[in-house]
């Protein structure tokens, strides 16, 4: 296993290496990590496929195999599990829909049932969403539900006004959003709340200047971004912070050159893949978010990514969505 | 917890039989498996053993007799113990935290939660799950706890956020006097680490909810600069103050604001040049 430790800093994006890295992910069945991450296999497919599409290599994974696999994760109640036989959850349901939209294969599944499952996750009193039948509430799930139903053109299935109300309860004094009311502002949660509000035409509820400042203050001297004050930089925040800034029309508040330098330095220039920061082990999650970050920054050779849906822009346009 | 209770090693346990008294009336013919499980349970209770086999045992008993309230109580407490051990190994697992929440709500007893979250925060003072969890189970001495953590690490943004939460989510609305004290507290911490944004955000948040104005920070910002301490947050705060005054018609302050933005964009916060140029533009556009 190689790390991203290198004496020279890479100044190019190793697209071919990353494509190969993603392709070989499913072949590592001898690795313990392969089995430890079984519960999020479906997420892995979404992360890998989206990265491939942005790198102009969507066919590097066989479309039929991918669709068949996604279909096998759907339950009778319409929800999808993280892998075959795993319990249904909102998160995996969104990943499933995102994958099928990329593969232009929504007709392979029971869409009405998906709508039913997602709608059933909303608490009609508070507007909040639970992740599954066990009741955990988090603004991540608000985004997941709204994004999923938006892709399926079925936002009518939930109480949008109430959903917005709950999200706004999670707005904090620093302009950011947490996972539940009063919880600390966190870039991941901010992406979810801002993305959700964007989909339902409610961005005017956000103090864009104040939040934009909070977001651009995430950039550290080394060019990387952290997720909240005084924490370490991490490549995945190149997505959570950047997409939120992009949605708010303030992407240029980040120093582009320094961030690109940081992301490129986190690549494994031998075996492909991107890590959370230079010198660490790569994984497909950080590979995707490094790529989406670079795409948002206009890095050459990549397709443009949609900051709200975290899908290639052409895919969002293909299904007739304009945000 | 995949093993059935029989598969655990019980060789060290002497089961204790049910004592129905010397002349039991209407003795119940219990299912042998249930009797066996209860026998082991009584023995473990006596030793006050908390373990995986104890947990599995209570599960089996509940299966046989779901109306056995005491066993439920013990079972739920075993679960709390089990979760504690799991959280030590997986402190960032969403499901574990949620599961604990559900149990605590069932037990209607959060007496253990203070020390439980304190232990987790001892290992990782910024664990997002632990902090969020504390917002569900707010205690009267939350401010004291938060203060302890701020003393330990003045840069702990989670602690600062929790301080705000503890004050403003309190059923008792804070008095103006109290809020003034909080602003002073924030200022004292700013002086210790002027480049740390957390107390700045905190103080501004408190001011926004009080009758105070941002002006109360002007002296602090200017004195830091005069001492040669360059904090973009102090300079940024001055920009905010000047902008407010410019909007009220002060041309002098409008100029000062613009100059401060230039200072930040070109010298003291170059990485955020575009942001400070934006602030300069906003100031310049004030009629």
Task: Please render the helix and strand layout as text.
The complex is a heterodimer of chains A (323) and B (287).
Chain A: H1 15-23, H2 32-36, H3 41-54, H4 63-72, E1 80-81, E2 88-89, H5 90-102, H6 111-120, H7 139-151, H8 160-169, H9 187-199, H10 208-216, H11 237-247, H12 256-265, E3 274-275, E4 282-283, H13 284-296, E5 305-306, E6 311-312, H14 313-318
Antiparallel strand pairs in A: 1-2, 3-4, 5-6
Helix pairs in contact in A: 1-3, 3-5, 3-13, 5-7, 7-9, 9-11, 11-13
Chain B: H1 32-47, H2 52-64, H3 69-89, H4 94-107, H5 113-123, H6 128-136, H7 142-152, H8 157-168, H9 176-192, H10 197-208, H11 218-226, H12 232-247, H13 251-268, H14 273-284
How is this structure best described in words?
The complex is a heterodimer of chains A (323) and B (287). Chain A has 323 residues and is mainly alpha-helical. Chain A is 45% helix and 4% strand. In chain A, the strands form three sheets. Chain A has a two-stranded antiparallel ribbon with strand order 1-2. Chain A has a two-stranded antiparallel ribbon with strand order 3-4. In chain A, strands 5-6 form a two-stranded antiparallel sheet. In chain A, a hairpin with a 6-residue loop joins β3 and β4 (282-283). In chain A, α3 (41-54) packs parallel to α5 (90-102) and α7 runs parallel beside α9 (187-199). The radius of gyration of chain A is 19 Å and the shape is globular. The N and C termini of chain A lie far apart (42 Å). Chain B is mainly alpha-helical and 287 residues long. Chain B has helices at residues 32-47, 52-64, 69-89, 94-107, 113-123, 128-136, 142-152, 157-168, 176-192, 197-208, 218-226, 232-247, 251-268, 273-284. In chain B, α7 (142-152) packs antiparallel against α8 and α13 (251-268) packs antiparallel against α14. The longest helix of chain B has 21 residues, at 69-89. The chains are: A mainly alpha (323), B mainly alpha (287). Chain A binds chain B through residues 134-136, 138, 172-174, 178-186, 212-213, 216-217, 219, 221, 223, 228-231, 250, 252-253, 255, 258, and chain B through 94-95, 98-99, 102, 126, 128, 131-132, 135-136, 155-158, 161-162, 164-165, 169, 196-198, 201-202, 204-205, 208-209, 271-275, 278. Chain B: Keywords: Magnesium, Prenyltransferase, Repeat, Transferase. Chain B: InterPro entries: Prenyl_trans_a (IPR002088). Chain B: Belongs to the protein prenyltransferase subunit alpha family.
């Amino acid at each position: 296993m190689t790390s991203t430790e290198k004496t020279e800093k890479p100044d190019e994006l190793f697209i071919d290496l990353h494509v190969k890295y993603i392709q070989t992910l499913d072949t590592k069945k001898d690795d313990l990590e392969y089995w430890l991450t079984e519960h999020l296999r479906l997420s892995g497919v979404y992360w890998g496929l989206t990265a491939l599409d942005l790198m102009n290599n969507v066919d590097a994974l066989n479309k039929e195999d991918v669709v068949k696999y996604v279909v096998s994760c759907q339950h009778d109640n319409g929800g999808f599990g993280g892998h075959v036989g795993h319990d249904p959850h909102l998160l995996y349901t969104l990943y499933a829909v995102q994958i099928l939209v990329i593969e232009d294969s929504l007709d392979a599944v029971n869409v009405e049932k998906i709508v039913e499952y997602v709608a059933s996750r909303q608490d009609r009193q508070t507007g909040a969403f639970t992740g599954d039948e066990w009741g955990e509430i988090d603004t991540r799930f608000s985004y997941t539900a709204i994004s999923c139903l938006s892709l399926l053109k079925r936002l009518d299935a939930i109480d949008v006004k109430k959903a917005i109300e709950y999200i706004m309860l999670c707005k904090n004094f620093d302009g950011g959003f947490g996972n539940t009311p009063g919880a600390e502002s966190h870039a991941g949660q901010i992406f979810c709340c801002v993305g959700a509000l964007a989909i339902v035409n409610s961005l005017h509820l956000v103090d864009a200047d104040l939040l934009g400042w909070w977001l651009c203050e995430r950039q550290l001297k080394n060019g990387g971004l952290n997720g909240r004050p005084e924490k370490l930089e991490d490549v995945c925040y190149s997505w959570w912070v950047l997409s939120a800034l992009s949605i708010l029309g303030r992407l240029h508040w980040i120093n582009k050159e320094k961030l690109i330098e940081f992301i490129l330095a986190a690549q494994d220039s031998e075996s492909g893949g991107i890590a959370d920061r230079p010198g660490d082990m790569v994984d497909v999650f950080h590979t995707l978010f490094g790529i989406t970050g670079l795409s948002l920054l206009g890095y050459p050779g990549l397709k443009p990514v949609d900051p709200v849906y975290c899908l290639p822009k052409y895919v969002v346009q293909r299904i007739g969505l304009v945000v | 917890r995949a093993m059935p209770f029989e598969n655990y090693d019980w060789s060290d346990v002497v089961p204790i039989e049910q004592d129905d008294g010397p002349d039991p009336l209407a003795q119940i013919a219990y299912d042998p498996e249930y009797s066996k499980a209860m026998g082991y349970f009584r023995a473990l209770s006596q030793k006050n053993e908390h373990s995986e086999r104890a947990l599995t045992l209570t599960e089996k008993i509940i299966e046989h007799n779901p109306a056995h309230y005491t066993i439920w109580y013990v079972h739920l407490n075993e679960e709390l113990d089990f979760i504690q051990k799991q959280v030590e190994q997986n402190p960032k697992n969403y499901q574990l935290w949620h599961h604990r929440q559900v149990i605590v709500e069932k037990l209607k007893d959060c007496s253990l939660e203070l020390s439980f979250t304190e232990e987790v925060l001892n290992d990782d003072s910024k664990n997002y799950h632990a902090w969020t969890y504390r917002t569900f189970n707010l205690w009267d001495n939350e401010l004291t706890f938060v203060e302890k953590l701020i003393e330990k690490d003045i840069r702990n943004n989670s602690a600062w956020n929790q301080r705000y939460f503890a004050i403003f989510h309190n059923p008792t609305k804070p008095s103006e006097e109290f809020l003034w004290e909080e602003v002073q507290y924030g200022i004292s911490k700013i002086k210790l680490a002027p480049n740390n944004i957390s107390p700045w955000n905190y103080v501004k948040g408190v001011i926004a909810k009080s009758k105070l104005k941002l002006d109360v920070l002007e002296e602090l910002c200017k004195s830091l600069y005069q001492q040669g301490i360059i904090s973009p947050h102090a300079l940024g705060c001055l920009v905010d103050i000047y902008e407010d005054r410019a909007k009220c018609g002060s041309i002098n302050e409008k100029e000062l604001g613009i100059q401060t933005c230039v200072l930040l964009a070109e010298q003291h916060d170059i990485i955020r040049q575009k942001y400070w140029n934006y602030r300069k533009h906003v100031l310049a556009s004030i009629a």
